[in-house]
Amino acid sequence: MDEVPGSLGTSASFSLRIGQTMFSSASLLFMSLGVEFYSYTAFCYLVTIMGLVIPWSFSLALVDGYSVLLKCPIRQPGILLIIVVGDWVLSTLTLAAACSTASVVDLLLSTHGSFCPPKLCSRYRISAIMAFLSWFLSLASSLFNLWLLPSL
Amino acid sequence: MDEVPGSLGTSASFSLRIGQTMFSSASLLFMSLGVEFYSYTAFCYLVTIMGLVIPWSFSLALVDGYSVLLKCPIRQPGILLIIVVGDWVLSTLTLAAACSTASVVDLLLSTHGSFCPPKLCSRYRISAIMAFLSWFLSLASSLFNLWLLPSL
After folding, report:
1. Can you tell me the ipTM of this complex?
2. Most B-contacting residue of A93, A107, A124, A125 (CB-CB within 10 A), to test interface
3. How confident is the model at residue A149, as a pLDDT?
4. What are the angstrom distances between the C-alpha of A122 and each of A92, A108, A136, B16, B75?
């Protein structure tokens, strides 16, 4: 069986998971350090989803780290399928949250400038960008694992 | 080769494509019959994406219709791959547009009631729901074709 770079149990996958954890945490922090986030539904949604993505990515990063250290990657189709589906669902939810946040920030900036102090709004915007990056990495993980799946 | 229901050239796929075309057209009409949509970025984005989805789904509906009538489904892996990727990209864009629209409508309704007459806002909301339905059908098409792809 050939090794797919980026699939479960490789060092590339470990980097992807660490990246996901970092970007999601950054998104959560930039959003929740502002005290007004709970007055907008989209921002609450982003915080909820990021609270799901961080433990998922972090635990898979641990699994990848162990696999790389022990040189013994997990190769059960069932587990891989769960990971592919989980990644895919979480990446869809992350994309939805990032788009909602971005559009709300855009609306707050463009038409209701007085509702949003520039400092808070730029923080919300950074949070949305971080969520998009986390979506991208999560999608990459899902695709690499999906690529590996038929060869098992 | 076994037939996957919902894959290219079957009557189930034809129904899916017709559903996508109908929901996207409904979403576009509900949005663009209101004259104020171009003042919000998210609404313009939805109109743009729906303008892409409608011709794509409609032309694939025509292809499916011909295949069903002539009983001669297309089975070239290259064409199928293009359709899977195209469906997937368009469904991602549709999801992004639907989420953005939904969050903007929610924001307009909840905090700035005066900016949005109830009649217009309910129309925007129906447009977002139609976009979500179109996303769902588009995703189903993409998954059915992806399922068929390895067997070719």
Report:
1. 0.82
2. A107
3. 81
4. 24, 11, 21, 41, 50
Predicted confidence band of residue A1 (pLDDT cuts 50, 70, 90): very low
**Count of domains for chain B:** 1
Query: How high is the pLDDT of residue A7?
Result: 81
Q: What is the CA radius of gyration of chain B?
A: 17
Chain B closest-CA separation from residue A5 CA (Å): 20
Residue in B96, B97, B107 closest to A104 by CB: B107
What pLDDT digit, counting tens, does each position of A16-39 carry?
999 999 999 999 998 888 667 777
Mutate to test the interface with A, among B103, B142, B147 (most CBs of A within 10 A): B103
Q: Nearest residue on chain A to B106, judged by CA atoms?
A: A41
A111 in contact with B, Cβ within 8 Å? yes
Top-ranked range on mean pLDDT: pick from A108-112, B93-97, B120-124? B93-97
Judge: B95–A100 Cβ closer than 8 Å, yes or no. Answer: no
Whether B2 is covered by a domain: the verdict is no
Contacts of A101 in chain B (CB under 8 A): 103
Q: How many Å apart are CA B101 and CA A103, to the nearest integer? A: 8
pLDDT at B1: 47
Instruction: Identify the domain containing residue A110 by its residue range.
Output: 11-151
> Measured between alpha carbons, how far is B7 from B132 in angstroms, rounded to an integer?
21
In percent, the amount of chain A with pLDDT more than 90 equals 47
How far is it, in rounded angstroms, from Cα B148 to Cα B152?
7
B121 found inside a domain: yes
H helix runs in chain A, sequence order: 11-32, 41-70, 77-110, 118-148
Whether the predicted pLDDT of A113 surpasses 60: no
User: From the CA of A131, how many Å to the nearest CA of chain B?
Assistant: 13
Q: Are B101 and B130 in contact (CB under 8 A)?
A: no
B1 within a domain of the structure (yes/no)? no
B6 assigned to some structural domain: no
- Interchain contact, A107 vs B42, CB within 8 Å: yes
